[in-house]
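Structure (tokenized):
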């Protein structure tokens, strides 16, 4: 476990007078870094929020104390999941071709349930809301077992959903809170060594009452609030990376917008790696990676559903692959090694920013720094319709230094990226002409 000390040092190449959102995180938001230095693929909290688990590549599952980050237990396996009763831990263990799904007593380490099944990409599992049944996804489909007895209740084949595939695997599963449906992701491999191989992914909801597989527009990863009222899932439409729905009505209540790319680059794509919804259903924590930059391309973001905007960006040096909020809402964890963040402190920073500026103002023009792209400043402007928009920047002498006709991508995101190399230190005024409507904002660049 490693402790950190905060130094009052400026790391950024520019500061702006309108920098209220998103809040830029720093190392003072971090409580500790724990676990091995090996890359962690998953992170999960115990229901009492006193322990956090992660599985490290080549190491296995590590259980760390939230209080100090010290390891309290370790297991050979991956995909750790604490049951809501707090007494049991589920995970998988194995290698290519066959995997064990295990449920064991977290206090005594005695095995309660164990099944060895065929799987090419691991074996997925999901626990029913009453925690009496475990659904296990394998190369043959989905199987439901009683946890206590190991008795097979029923199975559902997935193979007929993929015609003439080399093999089919169930990669991910989730019981919906009503216990009557299971959301799942399946993948099929097609091809041969001569022509090459390719994967096809499909998403279904298995209705347990009608025994039917219903194609779904939801995508993994997904996250559900502890009370089962809200769910966030990947995708949902153009211009967003995730969508939030009310599970009681199945109506959309918000979404997470796609980060706008720098518009003077040809390739800048994002992939959502993981997400988690806060226990109160207000915030969505996510990790993304950027192409074509790979292998340390991770970013942390927090989206406020009520304010409908990105409110926090974590330090990139502390970003990782997987993420999770603690059930008590006080912390969140990021898995690279395992980083534990003080979410209560971060929320205070967000609230302080909202006390100074009204976040929902539709007629405001914002100029801010985005640490995810350190060579750019961002100008976010009001525009309810896709009308011709011209962005002009003047220096303090009234001389025009930049003029941009915003393209369709900029119009869709209502934001524009300006390379810092185009601006020297000084005072500037940006003017947005959107269909004849003028909006002006002053900002300062200090290099």
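Design, position by position:
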């Amino acid at each position: 476990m490693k402790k950190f000390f905060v130094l009052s040092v400026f790391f950024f190449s520019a500061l702006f007078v309108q920098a209220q959102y998103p809040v830029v995180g720093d190392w003072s938001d971090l409580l500790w870094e724990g676990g091995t230095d090996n890359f962690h693929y998953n992170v999960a909290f115990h229901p009492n929020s006193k322990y956090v688990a992660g599985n490290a590549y080549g190491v296995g599952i590590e259980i760390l104390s939230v209080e100090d980050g010290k390891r309290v237990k370790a297991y050979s396996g991956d995909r750790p999941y604490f049951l809501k009763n707090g007494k049991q831990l589920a995970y998988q263990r194995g290698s290519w071709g066959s995997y064990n799904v295990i449920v064991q007593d977290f206090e005594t380490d005695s095995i309660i349930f164990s099944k060895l099944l065929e799987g090419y990409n691991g074996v997925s599992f999901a626990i029913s809301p009453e925690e009496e049944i475990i659904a296990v996804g394998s190369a043959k489909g989905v199987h439901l077992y009683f946890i206590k007895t190991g008795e097979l209740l029923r199975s559902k084949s997935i193979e007929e959903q993929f015609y003439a595939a080399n093999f089919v695997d169930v990669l991910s599963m989730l019981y919906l809170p009503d216990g009557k449906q299971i959301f799942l992701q399946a993948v099929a491999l097609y091809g041969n060594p001569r022509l090459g191989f390719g994967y096809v992914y499909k998403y279904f909801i298995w209705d347990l009452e009608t025994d039917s597989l219903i194609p779904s527009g939801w995508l993994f990863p997904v996250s559900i609030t502890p009370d089962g009222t809200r769910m966030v899932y990947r995708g949902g439409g153009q211009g967003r990376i995730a969508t939030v729905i009310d599970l009681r009505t199945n109506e959309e209540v918000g979404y997470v917008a796609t980060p706008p790319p720098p518009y003077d680059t040809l390739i800048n794509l994002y992939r959502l790696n993981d997400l988690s919804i806060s226990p109160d259903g207000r915030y969505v924590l996510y990790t993304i990676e950027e192409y074509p930059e790979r292998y340390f391309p991770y970013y942390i973001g927090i989206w406020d559903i009520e304010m409908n905007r990105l409110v926090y960006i974590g330090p990139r040096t502390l970003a990782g692959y997987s993420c999770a909020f603690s059930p008590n809402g006080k912390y969140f964890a990021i898995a690279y090694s395992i980083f534990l963040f003080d979410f209560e402190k971060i929320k205070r920073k967000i609230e302080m920013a909202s006390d100074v500026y009204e976040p929902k103002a539709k007629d405001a023009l914002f100029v801010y720094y985005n640490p995810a792209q350190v060579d750019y400043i961002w100008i976010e402007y009001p525009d309810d319709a896709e009308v011709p928009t011209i962005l002009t920047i003047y220096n303090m002498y009234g001389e025009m230094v930049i003029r941009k006709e915003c393209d369709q991508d900029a119009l869709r995101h209502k934001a524009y990226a300006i390379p810092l190399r185009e601006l020297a230190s000084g005072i500037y005024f940006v003017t947005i002409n959107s269909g004849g409507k003028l909006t002006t904002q002053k900002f300062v660049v200090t290099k």
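Reviewer-requested clarification: Confidence is low (pLDDT under 50) at residues 1-19, 262-268, 356-363. The first strand starts at residue 23 and ends at 24.
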